[in-house]
Design brief:
With 83 residues, the chain is α+β, with helices and mostly antiparallel strands. It contains 4 helices and 2 strands, in the order H-E-E-H-H-H.
């Protein structure tokens, strides 16, 4: 899944949440390979962003368009009713 910096800034601006850069950690495990993970605070921020995006159908669909690189997957998620 590819996430652009522009998408993150847009969503953080919409939901008045400042950017926090220390919550994504990348570790080099080889000359050309990294493993990237979220810290506990990063998971909490992502959870907050998803919760805020799910307030309306429109914001949820915009969120999916911005963050889900696979358009077929995004369409399948959009077709399901929110729980």
């Amino acid at each position: 899944m590819g996430v652009s910096t522009k998408s993150i800034y847009t969503w953080q601006k919409l939901f008045s949440k400042p950017a926090t850069y220390g919550n994504i950690v990348s570790v080099y495990v080889g000359p050309d390979k990294t493993i990237t993970a979220l810290t506990d605070d990063g998971i909490e921020e992502l959870t907050d962003m998803i919760r805020a995006a799910r307030i309306t159908k429109k914001t949820w669909h915009e969120f999916l368009d911005d963050f889900v690189e696979d358009t077929d997957l995004a369409a399948r998620i959009k077709a399901k009713s929110p729980r």
